[in-house]
Model the fold of this input.
Amino acid sequence: MKNGHTETGASDEMTLMSKEDLYLFNEGSHFHLYRKFGAHPVIRNGIAGTSFSVWAPDAEQVSVIGSFNDWKKDAHGLCRREESGIWEGFLPGVGKGTLYKFHIRSRFNGYEVEKTDPFAFFNEIPPKTASIVWDLDYTWRDEKWMASRNKRNALDAPMSIYEMHVGSWKRVLQDGNRSLSYRELGTTLPQYLQGMGFTHVEFLPIMDHPFFGSWGYQTTGYFAPSGYYGTPQDLMFLIDELHRHDIGVILDWVPSHFPTDGHGLSFFDGTHLYEHADPRQGVQPDWNTLVFNYGRNEVRSVLTSSALFWLDKYHADGLRVDAVASMLYLDYSRKDGEWIPNQYGGRENLEAIAFLRRLNEAVYTYHPDVQTFAEESTAWPLVSRPTYAGGIGFGLKWDMGWMHDILEYMSQDPYFRKEHHYKLTFRMVYAFHENFVLPLSHDEVVYGKGSLLGKMPGDDWQKFANLRLLFGCMYAQPGKKLLFMGGEFGQRREWAHDSTVEWDLLQDGRHSGIQQWVTDLNRLYRNEPALYERDCVPAGFEWVDCADAGSSVISLLRKGKSTDKAVLAVCNFTPVPRPNYRIGAPHGGFWKEVLNSDSTHYGGRGWGNLGGLEAVPIPLHGRTHSITLTLPPLATLFFTHSGCSS
Done:
């Protein structure tokens, strides 16, 4: 389909499996299986109905049960398609909105089970488990965005991501503390993100999941958005509105594991169809979930089809792939004897690596204007490098090391920070080994870790100053930016999925000051090419002075593609004001102070440099010139040269 045109229901011919479809499916190379499997309202021989198709190779019988036949397991059987393991059939009179499941009787041990359709486009709201016959008809209005997103998603474009959980961003307390629907979010969220200057939003998994407390990370519906918040068309409306407000949409996607719920993928046809049979390979001990069998061709086809589905049908601009490390390592979270080495005796999961490479190749082949993001917590090399260069093929990777280092550093009493100075500087040793996103994510504000504000030491004034300093340091660093909801105004309590973000705190000037600081950081980041054009290459960064551990001060330069433009950033990590603090400068002339986190505008005390400083020809730090600053306590300063835009 094309942008701006109505997504129409599938034709009968499109839903039928051809011999080529069967071949590609069994080979692991069919990447659009959602067009064939599942339930599709069609007209066959002039009769309206629904075609059904499901993969259950070890079933003895498969039937469709539902509200149309009183859930009778023998009323509407499907036919087995040769030796493909696919069961299919057409039921006249069954249309959109009909509840259904697949009843499967296995060839083994008399096993019988009712399963949700793995390819359903829509399901009942848990704890109910039926699938719903649905279509994907929608008239998109995001032509302008889609035509230009190749530039907006590029590695040399600004990318400031607002990570959020749909169910707890804003709740309607006067209506039973319910979550906002997709439609309601579509009328509020785009304006909020646009006003704050974010370029993208990343949704924690909105795919169907039975347990709300899993935040979506225990997915059962790989082709169905969660019905908690509305219909597929409602989600399309939300994404459409975000695009119309120039906000890209990244979806969290989980191909690493799936839950054991009986109506889901586990033991689907009386065999371990999607998962490994051996628990040393098939069980993920951290989450008590099941691991996909990436060595099975058909499973790879299903997962890759799921990834492309959200890009094809929902116009998603990127996929953040969860828990990649658990896929790469056979011994992930396992003790000796609890895992099976690969054919060479190693711990690398060769089948998962091959799957991820092929997945990324498929995504960028069909959608070269999107990005894939790896949440990968180890030092595995070349995660965000092309497969032709030996990489895994992701576009970007979360810098988890930076996240842990900076939060550990910031939690220290400023008096002791000089002893941990290396945590500020170490990431620059590896900062360009990957294309990095700097995340301050949901994982750091749950399970007793406290909020970002709560991690900051000192009295209330110091906590707020430290948080502004943290954000300023993040935006000064090379790498794309990600901030979890609530952090943008200094939420006090840690995140809880069943309650709303603490919006009432914005009545306090200290919190609204944090929000304004993040807004102005986003503005500066987007307006100064030096801060984003070379986020992923060494030429975009230089230390001015990284060695002043005694004062806990760092200073650095960011450079864009235009060599005569630069941004100078200075961070003071102690509550001690430092007048007459001299640093090197690459140019003479006037350096304009464009942002200062100690401004009273943000809740600071107003120390600063009266709009800017003149660099003088006194060499320092390997530079021909230098400037003498008034360095505020616990603050980040940004300067641009008079020849730079502001």
Notes: The chain has a mean pLDDT of 94. Residues 509-527 form the longest helix (19 residues). Residues 195 and 448 are 31 Å apart (CA to CA).
